[in-house]
Each structure stands twice: as structure tokens, then as C-alpha cells.
Amino acid sequence: MASFIEAFLFKGYCMNKFVLSSCFLFLLGTTAANSAPIEEQATAPKLSVDAFATLPFIRMVSVSPDGKRLAIVRAGSKNGDYFIEIRDTNNLEKDPVTLGADKMLVSGVSWLNEEKIAVQFRQILRDGSESYWVNKFAIADADGKGRWLVPFRERNNINFSIVSILPDDKDEILVEVDINRNWIPDVVRLNINNGRTRTVLRGNNKIEGNFVADATGEVRAASGWNPSNDSIDLFARKQGESEWQLVRQNSPKNRENFTFLGFSSEKPNQLYVNANLGEDKTGIYLYDLETGKYSERIFGLENVDVDGATFDKWGKLLGFNYTTKHPKRYLVDAKEQALYDGLEGVFKGKFFRIASRSDDNNALVIFTQSAKDPGTYFLLKDKKHLNKIGDRSPQLAAEHLADVKYVTYTTRDGRKTKAYVTIPQGKPPFSTVVMPHGGPWARDTNIYDEWTQVLASNGYLVVQPQFRGSSGYGLEHWKAGDKLWGLKMQDDMDDAALFLVEKGLAKKDKLALFGWSYGGYAGFVASMRENNIYQCSVAGAGVSDLNRINATLNESRFLKELQRPTIAGINPIEHVDKVNIPILVVHGDMDVRVPVKHSREFVEELKAKNKDHKYVELIDADHFSDTLFYDHKMKFYSELLDWFGNKCQLKG
Prior knowledge:
The chain is an alpha+beta fold.
């Protein structure tokens, strides 16, 4: 079965114009990822800022449960202006049904049944002097007829999430929402035809959210904050029973990872968890609600945490997920393994995933990507007809993009640390930008990264260090950043740059640091380091005052209660007098996660102390990159490149 798609392609059935060019690519065995050694790479003309600032032509693709229709979120302009196309999977050239609205920005789509789609969209709400982005949800008929149904329309800024689409119920979905306005989430059944709701579980001071339903739609796992023990308590219950069992308590004292993944389809009173359970790296276990005991570790790795598990629509376990350089899968279902084996033969040299699938697996949406490919969508019908749906960013040709390496370096205190290195075309050594990730309790996964490619296209080598405090590399590495913000965490970033200098890839006198969110905090700190190795820094949407950071943690009980005690170190706003290199500060004026006040106040201090700086405020931009539109990115990228090339004199 490993070659069923290859066999089809080599028979010469590449006739549909949607697939013709990609078929020739496969047949000729082209491998764009195989590049010449660094010293021999030819320099292609750099891409324009406009090419990178243009929003993706396709945002996402989803196939209906019966496999007959595709929902495509497609751009209407460089600025996005996304709308939805509904296309016939048997004839992609047929004129589509189009859906959209003038006063909303479509961000995503998914199928609720064969006829109904869920539309995610965003809007700016202006309330007096306050303006902010809100996420909205609507239900529409896929044929484009009828009125859109917006659940809880009367509540402007309500948060809710889908717990289960209830695959055996075509009319209702299971939703987590604060239905009775007491600030505690409940679970309701939402009728997707008329918007009526029926409460099935009321949250309380014990059970406060993170609800998990089994394959039948019964809510059987949840969590809550326990103030008496200063812990997050995780509960589950047996099938058909009302009594909750305490499965786990997680407190700042132990602070291990523990996540409910889903219930076993074979033994419904057992559930899969991803947890440390005394080990450094997380792994998969089964917890038995009958005995109160854990199984032996079912799956785990030596070097990285397990990310989670994959289940089909009906709760059957398909496999486990983890990330090294790229996300990977370990499949336990034989049919799923055979399917991926077949796809591996076609998409050689690419990261790929099944983005959406029909219930019978005869219609698959496949998304491919690589360092030199921002992403391409394909439709595979009946395991033999492969059609190219389209590229996310066709204006970004592979020959203009840069390779990415995954390396290990040693910090000054002996810690082995991973890093992504995006290598520009040309001959080293290069001017180099250190780009720490946000979080900081996160990690980079650089398959294709727009920001690193913008910089590499302009001749800069970019390194993304997975500094201590990053998640995904085990409990010890995660906790090693506790209370060391701007201290050893910052040393790890500097050491990544010095490692590349030692290897002859980076110029010692042409270094800069640029980050966003926590990386923006690191940008503030980089501007005031003693014996500074950088010529300049850039702080994007950064935290400048650790005393105010609690506001950025309120969205997550885990972050607020378990991570708050670990936040300590250099507080940038208190040390502006130590700034010793030029700093560019960038912030969106509608940032809810890290309010723009962090940057405005830091800039006021820079002005008062006559420090070399520039401030750029992005109007109507929130914290996350998907609220940066074409005009935002044109301004941001232009300012960034001008800063590095002229103010910092990194060029040459």
C-alpha cells in the first residue's frame, strides 16, 4: 500500500489543471529542500516586503463529512478580506458557492454535518474610548441560502468553545460556555438549526471548565481551582455516573504536566493522559477509573515530551504526536499507518498532515509545507485522484527562500540546547539576528516561518534558541528558567549567537536580537545587558514591567496560579538607565494579551533618559500575528529591515 498514490501518478493520469504542475514535480523527482553547501549557495534576488506582507491566498480548507464538498477560506485581496468557497470535490473547476459578510473578518471554517458549516470570524468592538478584537462564531448553510445563525448574539464578548460535534447527532453540538453569567463555564447542547440551548452540566466552584466528553457526548472529565490546597484539581467520572473522582492535583510545589486526552473506546472507564508521573519527559498512560491506578507508560521518548494523541471522530485512538525538529506521529492504528505510508512516498522532503477528512477517509485534505514552501493544499479522492487545491503564498518561490537547520549548542554553564538556524543565500559569515520565541513556556517549531524568511531574504542569518524555560524538552529544562527571566534565560540566547560566531556562520560585530511577546521582553533586556554583544535590539509586543504581568496570565488558570510564582528576574522598566544600544519598540494598540501600556511607558522612560530608540505603534493590531494585516506588515517589516540595515548597520 506504500506506493498506491505513486503508482497512480506514474500511470500518467495528471490531466486535471488543478494538479498538472504538482504531478510534473513528483514525476521528475524535484527536491527543492536539497540545497548546496552553505559556502556554495548562489544568491537569488531578494523578495520584496510586499511579497511577505501579502496575506495567504488560502487560509484553510475543510472537507464535508460525506466527502462531497470542500470549504475553502480564500483571500479576496492582499489584506485578506477572506470569504468562504464551497466547491464540489468531484469537479473543483465548477463555480463555487461563496459566503462572506462585509462587517466580519472570516478566520476559519469547519463542518458540523453534511449541510452546516461553522464559521469563525473576528470583529473590532469599539466601546467609548476602548477598542478590542473579539472572536465570533456563526452557523451557515453550505449552499449559501438562509440566514446565518450567531449563537448568543446578544452577548458581545462571550467566550465559548466546542466540546464535541456529537457525530451521531446531526442537529446539536456540545459547547462550553458561561450560560448563566456567573463567570463559571457550563456545558450546553446547542441546536445548530435554531440556536436553542439545553444545559447538560452546570459548572461550580469544584468543576470549573476544561470539559472532556467521551465518544457518546457524555461529559466525563473536567478541572477546577482548589483554593484550600492551592492546586488545580482534575476530575473524571465513570460512564453513566454522576460522582466525580479526583484524579490529580497539580500545585506550584510539584508543577508537573498532566493533561486528559480522551477516553478509551474499548474500555470506556479508562482514559488516556499525557503526564510526567515522576519522569522528566511526558508520556502516555491509561488511568483506570475502576481501580484508580495508572498503566505502565504506553508511549514516550528520551529527548522530548509527547505532545498528545490523535483520535478519530468516534473516539478511536489512532496514534501519538511529538515534536523534534518537526511534528511527528507514532501510529497505533494499522489502517492509519498504511495511509500515511502511502502519502510519505508522494510528499518526500515535505512535512505533511491530513488537515481534514471525510468520515469514510475517501476524501482527504492534505497540507504540505517545508522551509521553502509556505504551504500547499491537496485533495486526495478515493486514494488515487490527487488534485492540487492551491498554494498559501504562491508569490514566495522556493528559490528565494532559505534552508533551516536544527542544531545543538552548549550554553556557558554546560546545558545542551536546541536551536533552529535559518541560513540565507550567500557565503558566511552573516549578520545575525537572535529571535527568541514568545511564552516563554512554549517552543518553536520552524517548518516555515515568515519572520525568519523575511530576514533571511534580506541576508540575515536567524537563530531561534530553545532557551531554558522552553516547554517540550522535559520538566527539568522547563523549570530551569524559573525566576531567571533576563538572567540565565537571556544568557542562553546570547550563547546561541556566540556559538554561531565560533562556527564561522555569524559575524561577531553584526549581531542583533528581535523578539515578540516574551521575546519582546527579551528585546527590552537585550538593550541593557552588560558587555553587550548586540549592535541593537527590537522589542515587539513585549512585557516591560513584570509587576503587571498578571494581566497577561488571566486567560489561563494554569498560568495564573502555577506559573505566576516562577516569574522573577530583570524588570526592564526599572533599568532603562542601563540601555546601551539602540532599541526599536513595536506594539499593537489593541493588544489584549500584553497591553500597549508596557511599550508606551518604556518609551517614555527612554525619552526621559535620552536613549537612542524608535517607537512604532500598529493601529488596530492585537497581540497575535494573525491580527497583523497587509498594511501592518508592510510598516512593520519595512521598519524592521531599515532598523537593522541602517540604524544598526548590520549590512556589509
